[in-house]
Amino acid sequence: MQKYNISRSNYFYAIGLSYKKADAEVRGHFSLDQDSKLRLLNQAKENAIESLIVTSTCNRTEIYGFAQHPFQLIQLLCDNTRGTVEEFEKVAYIYKNNDAITHMFRVGSGLDSQILGDFEIISQLKISTNLSRKHGLLNHFTERLVNAVIQASKRIKTETNISSGATSVSFASVQYIFNNIENVSKKNILLFGTGKIGRNTCENLVKHTKNEQITLINRTKNKAEQIAGKFNLVVKDYANLQEEISNSDILIVATGAQRPTIDKHIIQSKKPLLILDLSIPKNVNPNVEELANVSLVHLDDLSKITDQTLEARREQIPLAEVIIEEVKADFNSWLETRKFAPTIKALKHKLNDFKVAEFDALRKKNPDFNEEQAELISNNIIQKITNHFAHHLKDDGVSTDDSLEFIKKIFQLEHPTTQA
Ligand SMILES: NC(=O)c1ccc[n+]([C@@H]2O[C@H](COP(=O)([O-])OP(=O)(O)OC[C@H]3O[C@@H](n4cnc5c(N)ncnc54)[C@H](OP(=O)(O)O)[C@@H]3O)[C@@H](O)[C@H]2O)c1
User: Fold this and answer.
1) Which of its termini does the chain have fewer beta carbons within 10 Å around, N or C?
2) Which residues are listed for NADP(+) binding in this entry (predicted)?
3) pLDDT in tens, 134-154
């Protein structure tokens, strides 16, 4: 398949940045919360973009969409984040057509995740796709592509061991604590922020540290209480944050704010304090490192932890790639079919015109001819001829583009529309 410009004069692009080249600070500049995502989608509609999906997670921000030039998508991203075009250019990737499709498959299958085999991204992709659909920003091509990616990711999850063992971000934090703090079970641990990542971290902490001195604080207290109830942990008021930090040996920050929720002024005690910041953008102001008793570790450092589990997962990559190729081949053959469907339709139309003209001539010559039977025979022949052409175009050994041109020339077909 040489061309993917199935939309009139537009190409399919994936533009974005990820943990691979962009550090947490830069990723933070391009992160999109729900409001900015909605603003971006609305702007895309105003700009008459026909199909677009935008995802923003702690590890990456990406836009998949149709455009004449990728800058149209880059501009949308920069207009709705704190990032600039210059900054984007330094760390970004831009994929077109087949490469963009391959990229979505790899991302959605966890092969491009910061922690290999982390399937969190596929649920983000589903949510983003639903949002685009709601905004009328999803064409048939993108819908079908996302479904194929979901199918590949499901198969990889069940048919390989790529997500075996615990290597999530929250597990990595617990592992870090174990490797760096003695007597973990006797330490006071404070978890600030009990959203999704906070909840997972809490579960891992309870499971692995056997520590009963874990305190939870969340801006909305009842969310912390729901989690605490499950494990019998202590919940304190948001207003007591400073006091609770003073009582802690380890502070885990999992808040999802756009600006720091913790800075040096809130830390009053002089005893050693390890702070793990799991947020993107960073929610702990680096100025805490000015305090001699504080050591700060960010998510990006935690994710560098490699262990046996990750090694075992890496061995599964070739298997996952085979699955991706299989699903992608199905998708591409659907795409091929869509590409020639308008021409086959136009051909059928033309043959039908021949039939009508022949019938008119016959009626004049022989008013008694059996019209019903002639109709039946002609329609069967038309169907057989178009089927033969369709089979030929589906044949892997032929160049679809050349054959399409040839058919259009022979039958003098007008330009059939090829919109997705
Ligand atoms: N989900 C993941 O797999 C993952 C992985 C790695 C890193 N992260 C990062 O972890 C952070 C949290 O992600 P999440 O998925 O857990 O999000 P989430 O489920 O939406 O939870 C967000 C949490 O942050 C709190 N919060 C938001 N703004 C705040 C503010 N201004 N002050 C105090 N608390 C605030 C929320 O409190 P309320 O309950 O009061 O709203 C909630 O506890 C993000 O920075 C994200 O990038 C997430």
Assistant:
1) N
2) 193-198
3) 999 999 999 999 999 999 999
